[in-house]
C-alpha cells in the first residue's frame, strides 16, 4: 500500500513528469517549499525561479569537479564519459 501511494505521488510531481533526482540541496530546503517546487512546478518552471548565490556557486564548483573526478556522467537520462582536461 505504501509503495502504491509513493508511486502515485511521484507521478503527480513536476507537472506529471515525476521527480527527476534527489540532491543534497533538495534535502536542505524546508519541506513545504520542496513540495511546492516539485508538485506545483515542472523542471522548466523551476529553472526560471530566482536562485540564491549559493545555488550558483554550488553549480560552479560541482560541475567541473564532477567532470574531472567521475568516470561517467548522466545528463537528461543519457550516460556519457566526460572529456578529461588537465588542470593548471
What structural keywords apply?
88 residues, mainly alpha
Number of domains: 1
Shape: extended
How many helical stretches? 5
Strand residue content: 5-15%
Detail the poorly predicted runs. Answer: none
What class would the helix/strand composition place it in? mainly alpha
Listing every helix as H and every strand as E from the N terminus to the C terminus, the arrangement reads HHHHHEE
Helix content: 55-70%
Q: What can be said about the biggest beta sheet? A: 2 strands, antiparallel
Mean pLDDT: 76
Measured on Cα atoms, how large is the radius of gyration? 16 Å
Please give the number of β-strands: 2
Strand order of the largest sheet: 1-2
- The end-to-end distance, rounded to whole angstroms, is 55 Å
Description:
The protein is built from five helices and two strands. With 88 residues, it is mainly alpha-helical. It has one domain (2-80). It has a two-stranded antiparallel ribbon. β1 and β2 (78-80) form a beta hairpin. The chain is extended, with a radius of gyration of 16 Å.
Write a brief caption for the model.
This protein has 5 helices and 2 strands; from the N terminus they run αααααββ. The protein is mainly alpha-helical and 88 residues long. Strand 1 and strand 2 form a beta hairpin.
Helix/strand layout:
Layout: H1 2-12, H2 24-28, H3 31-40, H4 43-48, H5 53-69, E1 73-75, E2 78-80
Antiparallel strand pairs: 1-2
Amino acid at each position: 500500500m505504501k509503495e502504491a501511494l509513493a508511486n502515485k505521488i511521484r507521478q503527480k510531481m513536476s507537472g506529471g513528469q515525476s521527480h527527476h533526482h534527489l540532491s543534497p540541496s533538495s534535502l536542505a530546503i524546508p519541506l513545504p517549499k520542496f513540495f511546492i517546487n516539485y508538485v506545483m512546478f515542472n523542471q522548466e518552471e523551476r529553472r526560471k525561479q530566482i536562485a540564491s548565490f549559493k545555488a550558483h556557486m554550488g553549480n560552479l564548483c560541482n560541475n567541473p569537479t564532477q567532470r574531472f573526478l567521475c568516470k561517467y556522467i548522466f545528463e537528461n537520462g543519457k550516460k556519457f564519459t566526460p572529456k578529461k582536461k588537465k588542470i593548471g
